[in-house]
Amino acid sequence: MVDLSAVSRVVVVGGGTAGWLSALEMRHTFATSVEVVLVESEAIGILGAGEGTVPNILSALQRYGIEQDKFMTATQATFKLGVEFEGWREARHIYHHLFSFHNESVDLASWRTNGAYPFMSALVAAGVPLGEFPASAQWIRDQASQAEVKERLGASELEGFAYHFDAPLVAKFLRAHAESQGVRRHNATVADVELDSSGSLTAVLTDKGRIEGDFFVDATGMARLILLKKLGIPWKSFSDYLILDSALPFLLPHNQPHPQLVTRSVALDAGWMWVIPTGGRLGCGYVYSSKHVSREQALAEVSTYWGTDVEPINHIKFSPGRLEQCWFKNVMAVGLSSGFVEPLEATSIGQTIDQLMSFGDLMQEGQYRVTDHMRDVFNQKVASYWDGILDFLVLHYDTARSDTQFWKDVQALPRPAQYIELKRLFQTRLPREVDLLPYELFGKHLFGLASWVSVGAPMGIMPANTADKDLIGLSKEELDKLSRFVATVRPPAHEPSRKDLAPVA
């Protein structure tokens, strides 16, 4: 049995966004009599590449008692309504994955029959991308200001959004909030860990002394010091399916009157580039395959793209994958320590939040005692959650683009078995919620079926005639209702495209 009812100290090892979110969750989960300690080294610093979120950030802020306006001001945050994909299907093709699936009159989820959502199916059947439908799509086209978006969001609780922000400022803000909640911080470098005869952790050994604890959170990032390196938990690699392994983050000024309301994901010769507008600048980065271009070639490509010399603030090497078990004995790995795919779709912070909240709910609902089997189930669900993120990202790379060797090699990559099954299924009908149940983490999905359709249809994986099959069996009155609905949505006059891929800062 796992018994954390008598815990007196929880130790979070590692800072950054994942570490401080962990500290806040431990403070939220355990009684105030339980001491929460975070150990981080200022000498190590933080990765600083995670500058976008998905909508579950809103649940986290509410859970930890953080006011949204205060958070946005302190982190130079801007509203993120979704992601704009440029050049992923072909050189000038653009589509959007937005977080909202509502407009002023229709909620796509309001009509469901036999697992299908006729409003959604009708749009796909008519060739209207889901990214053209919600009210937020018009805000993006209007280049609405932050104040305008805030006002419109306030008038419509249905609209989904997240944030762009300055990653170092987020870690600083979360630290201050956690410390105000009683979390204690140690500025120290962890050199080793101490185990008892059963293999449970008893202490971390730092350059400033020994820190004991009863439960530990491994938030050591890509170093993965505890579960992977010290406890030998196996690592499952995703590198057969995702071949990007390097990232060059850099900063640029933005010269638009209002920050863009989407993260731009621009396909390049050997990978893709993120462009994230915060309140003070653009956070950018080229995620690329080192097998296809060198660091110097990657820098030259983005410098040419922007028409100015680019100075990277870091050079990140990564290997996509996850731990086979995120929770072993009295240690749980979170964030980059638990797994990582790549920066596409801002999955890292989103996964961290859902894993932490699931752990906290499990502990509180189980009165801090659960069976060993329940811990095994938790591990299985977190692993499947990571696998679902992998399959969703693979969907983005299932492309006909072949103008460079990288994109030719991406075409030739093997696909995960579960993705192959889903793709086959989605060519007979659109996704259903039941299809994504294997990826569910105690009721949580990072990307639901509307997200899959938002990407899969523009990428050609879910053709219009597939959606037509969802409408078989509807009455004439229902089909007429759908025809009237489709007529109210702004139809794309042509394939969404930009005349060129010149920078839009």
Shape: globular
Number of strands: 23
Report low-confidence residues grouped into runs of 5 or more. 493-502
Radius of gyration from CA coordinates: 23 Å
Name the structural class. Answer: alpha+beta
Structural domains: how many: 1
* The CATH class: Alpha Beta
Looking at the overall shape, the CATH architecture is 3-Layer(bba) Sandwich
* Average of per-residue pLDDT values: 93
User: Major sheet: order of its strands?
Assistant: 6-5-15-16-17-14-18
Protein architecture, described:
- The chain is α+β, with helices and mostly antiparallel strands and 505 residues long.
- It has one domain (2-241, 319-464): FAD/NAD(P)-binding domain (3-Layer(bba) Sandwich).
- The protein has 16 helices and 23 strands.
- It has a seven-stranded mixed β-sheet with strand order 6-5-15-16-17-14-18.
- Helix 1 links the parallel strand 2 and strand 3.
- Helix 1 packs parallel to helix 10 (347-365).
